[in-house]
From TrEMBL:
One Pfam assignment: Tmemb_40
UniProt entry tagged with the keyword Transmembrane helix: yes
PANTHER family: TRANSMEMBRANE PROTEIN ADIPOCYTE-ASSOCIATED 1 (PTHR15876)
Molecular function GO labels: G protein-coupled receptor activity
Subcellular location, record wording: Membrane
Family of the protein in this entry: Belongs to the UPF0359 family.
The protein's name in its UniProt record: Transmembrane protein adipocyte-associated 1
InterPro entries, sorted: TPRA1/CAND2/CAND8
Broad class of the protein's primary localization: membrane
Segments traversing the membrane: 48-67, 87-107, 119-140, 152-172, 192-214, 226-250, 256-274
Topology term for the membrane: Multi-pass membrane protein
Domain of life: Eukaryota
Length: 293
């Protein structure tokens, strides 16, 4: 930003005469200053290593999808599986949004980009969460129905949960003005309070699945080991994120660092993990054998 030189002139009038005093030029500060009223805060951008940890794995996974796109599209056209077609389209949508989110981290510390950044973050998180929930909704159904019935059930369950989650975030961000997606004030209690509840719910869901697995009701869950490996990973990530949010809510710097670490892992590594788990579990369940072999 170019500095603007301002010259101030003070006019003083007394009973007998008037005179003016010129002050030297004042240079505008090259960085934003926190206002006394607290309406604006200093914005902190993450460093190069943080951005690289997000962008590099995301770009590599998108390149992986591009390289295999022709083969996958051919199989999709030949197989005509509604579930796999929908999953593949959602995976691409989530990957494109996630790549944009990872690449445009500077938006959250750029003046005038607040709305754009909040909208991008909102839709990116919603797309990835939709895939996450759809996998669990598909695998936790008591019986595998036909492809179209399974797709409808999965979409309805995932859509309701993600819709409620998005509505709450819209109210928090655009209604109350809480910086859920912007690292403006690391000690914002309402922000961390929301993420504490969010991560606690995810941790409770994955923890409950693991509890059922070791209980007398374990026969109601999928018996394949890969399913529980996925659940264990998600439980650990959610629990660490929850712990980080609790510490961050108290103002602890380590909690903020820990939460940022889970953000990096989630946005850079989760979609490849989801892609592998989704396809493997559906294939083991007996779907798509004729389509994908």
């Amino acid at each position: 930003m170019m500095a603007k030189n301002l010259e101030a002139t003070i006019n003083v009038t007394t009973a007998s005469e008037s005179f003016s005093v010129s002050l030297p030029p004042i240079a505008e500060l090259p960085f934003p200053v926190k206002s006394i009223g607290g309406n604006e805060s200093v914005r902190q951008c993450h460093g190069v290593l943080y951005d690289a940890a997000l962008v590099v794995p995301t770009v590599l996974f998108v390149l992986y999808l591009v390289v295999h796109a022709k083969k996958n599209l051919t199989k999709l056209c030949n197989g005509r599986s509604y579930i796999m077609i929908s999953y593949y389209a959602l995976l691409w949508l989530a990957c494109v949004l996630n790549l944009a989110w990872c690449s445009l981290q500077g938006w959250q510390c750029s003046a005038g980009k607040e709305v754009a950044w909040n909208l991008l973050s909102l839709f990116t998180v919603a797309a990835v969460l939709y895939l996450e929930i759809s996998l669990m909704a598909f695998l936790l159904q008591e019986s595998y129905a036909s492809g179209l019935e399974t797709l409808a059930r999965t979409f309805i369950i995932s859509g309701i949960i993600v819709g409620v989650d998005m509505l709450l975030k819209v109210i928090y961000v655009f209604g109350f003005g809480f910086p859920l997606f912007i690292d403006v004030d690391s000690t914002h209690r309402m922000k961390w309070g929301f993420w504490i509840i969010h991560e606690l719910l995810l941790t409770a869901v994955y923890g409950f699945i693991l509890f059922v697995h070791f209980s007398k009701w374990r026969e109601k869950l999928p018996s394949r080991p890969a399913f529980y490996h996925y659940v264990v990973v998600m439980f650990v990530v959610s629990a660490v994120a929850f712990f980080g949010c609790v510490l961050a809510g108290t103002g602890a710097a380590f909690g903020i660092w820990l939460y940022n670490l889970t953000v990096i892992c989630y946005h850079s590594l989760y979609l490849p993990l989801l892609d592998n788990a989704y396809y493997s579990e559906m294939k083991d369940a007996g779907f798509f054998d004729a389509d994908w072999e």
